[in-house]
Amino acid sequence: MTRLALDAAPAVDLPRRFLLTTPAWGMLAGALLMAAGPAVVTTRWHPALLAATHAFTLGVFGNLLCGSLLQFLPAAAGVRVLGGRHAARWLHVLLNAGALLLVAALHGASNALFAPASIVLLGAFVLFAAMAAPGLFAARGQRLLRNGLGLALVAATAAATLGAGLALVLAGHVVLPWPLPAMADVHASTGVLGWLLLSIAAVGRVVMPMFQGAAVLPARALAMWLGGIAIALPLAAAARMTRADDAPLRLVLVVAAIAFAFGVLSLQVASPHARNAPLRAGWRAGAIALVVAAVALAAGEGVLAGVLAIAVALPFFAVGMQLEIVAFLGWLDLHRRCARGIRLPPVQRLMPPADKWRVFATFIVAATLLPAAVCWPSPHLVCVAGFAVVVAHALLGWTLWQVRRRGTRFLAGVDA
């Protein structure tokens, strides 16, 4: 099992800033769905659906991955992240300001927002690449992990570049030779599979045994999955852009998603020392939802597949780890602030299992209502589904802040 180098971890407030920002974006996504009405789930091009999608991908997952990797890379992968406190603060500002501008532009506020949104967001991804890439190449050991995260970083930058191009096309500033739907498909596939799922898979090989007691995925299996995506995704994307053929890209997405999901489920079944039941349940639910999303995509149900993948499956993977990381950061903060000899509360007291189960239950409700709203769109069902998303992320935010409150209460008792 990978050992954590606590001394190499950054100041706690740097990753925590990103992680505590995500619930607000989830609440915004739910509110956009609530206000849009049933038409929002009838077409992928609905302004509110586009805005909510990017609130999830950039606001929720963007902040989560940036914050998590700022902690994970130096502490678990031995990778030095450049820039320190100032770069991390600028990254947080650029990512969230750019996401807010893009969400507003997609929702129809003003076409004039597309250009600044694309510039700011591309700047955020380039900054993160500049912070992480040199360390990924220079570090020793954990080669498979570093290769996986390096591929994800390349995919993130490519998706951001494609997204900037799409934004400039929508604003009327440029005309590109490729059809807009083809560009959107490649942008979405590169972002969701190449960036998000690749990052979760690379990190998951380390954190699943660490936090869930799961079996360790054989290095060869992960290497084959990563290598397959690194080869197949660009080829399928090229076919989509040049020949307007979406079958290869759809096949790559379906096969990669199902392989990842079954890998997670098989590792959980083979767990030698199963622990952390809420986290295991979240990842199991995410894997099942990902399989259903892949089946929907194969059947040509693009909106349903997108909702299942982005608003259901990925949040289950992300939120479970978010709870663990914030609880660990709370403990690390106490470890650094308390003198030697003081007995610190365990992580489980800062984030009790009951709190995790409550968050999981609210996400299960949202995960049930969202696909139901797509399949049977009605004003009431769409509104209730959006409200469920708001409630789930509000409870998540409250639960994360409780870790800081419990830590503050412990410090007050020590000082007294």
Helicity range: over 70%
Report the principal-axis shape: globular
Strand content: under 5%
Number of strands: 0
Terminal CA distance reads 39 Å
What is the helix tally?
A: 14
Instruction: Tell me the major beta sheet.
Output: none
- Calculate the mean pLDDT score and round it: 91
Rg measurement, Å:
21 Å
Low-confidence stretches: none
Structural class: mainly alpha
What is the H/E order?
Answer: HHHHHHHHHHHHHH
Describe the protein in words:
This protein is mainly α and 416 residues long. 80% of the residues lie in helices and 0% in strands. The chain contains 14 helices and no strands. Helix 10 (277-298) packs antiparallel against helix 11 (302-337) and helix 13 (353-375) packs antiparallel against helix 14. The model has no long low-confidence stretch (mean pLDDT 91).
Keywords:
416 residues, mainly alpha, 80% helix, globular
Write the layout of secondary structure elements.
Elements: H1 13-19, H2 22-36, H3 47-76, H4 84-106, H5 114-138, H6 143-170, H7 180-212, H8 219-243, H9 247-269, H10 277-298, H11 302-337, H12 347-350, H13 353-375, H14 379-415
Helix pairs in contact: 1-3, 1-4, 2-3, 2-14, 3-4, 3-7, 3-11, 4-5, 5-6, 6-7, 7-8, 7-9, 7-11, 8-9, 9-10, 10-11, 10-13, 11-13, 11-14, 13-14
